[in-house]
């Protein structure tokens, strides 16, 4: 996996119903132009093809994704629907940006689903009639998958968990293995955790937590949560330090170390040591953007497991003792990428303080002792080389330090008579 490959956030929010509402409340832009440009490129790649050349509605949609003003984008989508009511990408844009509630977005997406299914069936019959026909069918497939996924996410947000889980399961079966980059299994895991169906979560992890598949914070931290759930309720650091860790506790701690090694920024958000913000539309694996996206949706799942956050709090920092040189050599994963900070600064809004890889901090006593020894050695060397100059410097320094004491003595003598001071000294 390339070091700084940017991935589409599988749990990204709806622009109109969620990101825009945040802007209205705070007057802060939750998305950067870099992040939105990446989304525009994604939409152009998946929702357009060579076969759209000459079709006015699809040419309008090609430019609509690139528009920075949301009002212009929405107007372009409506113009495309006036030309062709079966233009599914236009419905997608309206659901994402014009709808101000999840209920409205779901209503538009259901209309889009009917249109997309019709387009898919039409293109399916002609897909073997050349490269252009195949491209149109691929585009229609992408549109259909996207709409089904967003509908499932609407169901999840509206509390229809069983419906959402069924839709996500169906999608994971429909999509070929080469499309695992869509990470729909992460949506499924999150919905199952909300249902507290931990056995089903374990079954999904057994399939996707494989050495041949790319890892993510969702996979690593969900595996840690499931193992922590077995021991977290009765875990006590004092008792564990006396009797040692049991095999189950050792397994949970190792899973936490593995997760923290993959993404060291997540624990501060889960432990609420750092403030959460809305996650971006794209994430950088092992970066702060991925940590935000994971913690934003999974913090409640950790709170639902009694003692899980306490176990995380007691053990997560031990990972850094295992990794003395994380930028050069990893323990379970390849070294931590050095470019994540720069990429995260592009993805995350300016009002957010980007997390960097936690550096080991030396205790104050060690720093103080090192400084004192260095200064003493320097003074000894200077005294040996320049004894007269250092003698003058030392006497000047002592006189300068003694000035406050002389001043206090004079003030006391001016207030109290000398004979009173003598009597007091006799007493």
From TrEMBL:
Family matches, as Pfam families: ST7
Cellular component GO terms, alphabetical: membrane
UniProt signal peptide: none
Compartment(s) where it occurs, according to its Swiss-Prot or TrEMBL record: Membrane
Keywords, sorted A to Z: Membrane, Transmembrane, Transmembrane helix
Its membrane topology: Multi-pass membrane protein
Family according to the record: Belongs to the ST7 family.
Record PANTHER family: PROTEIN ST7 HOMOLOG, SUPPRESSION OF TUMORIGENICITY 7
Descriptive protein name: Protein ST7 homolog
Source species: Anopheles sinensis
Lineage: Eukaryota, Metazoa, Ecdysozoa, Arthropoda, Hexapoda
